[in-house]
Amino acid sequence: MNKFNFVSFTLRLLGTMTLVLLTYNPTGYSYFHWVQDSLALQGTGFGAEHAFSGVVMLIGWTILIRSTLQSLGALCLILAAAFIGTLVWLMTSYGVVEVESSTAIAENQGNGA
After folding, report:
1. Packing angle between helix 6-23 and helix 48-72, nearest 10 degrees?
2. Contact at 8 Å (CB) between 30 and 53?
3. How confident is the model at residue 111 (pLDDT cuts 50, 70, 90)?
4. CA 30 to chain centre
């Protein structure tokens, strides 16, 4: 069994962030937007490349969720989700993140804020 070190942590973090940001991000370049745009176009529609990419992402999400449940357990996963949800709520209540803008976080990071 391999030791867990900084490199393995970094690789897991990068893989997770890649999966999350490929699934949906506010910039408009994500699987969600790709499928949405293809369904809006007349004639092209949902194709084999959309289905294949969706299955690959579903496999990635299954691995991610199963490993998270095994490492944290259901209770800690619920507590982590509650923590993140209330943190976002707190940030919106203090005006750090604007609710009206889906790109508020991306815009703030781009401005160096």
Report:
1. 140
2. no
3. low
4. 10
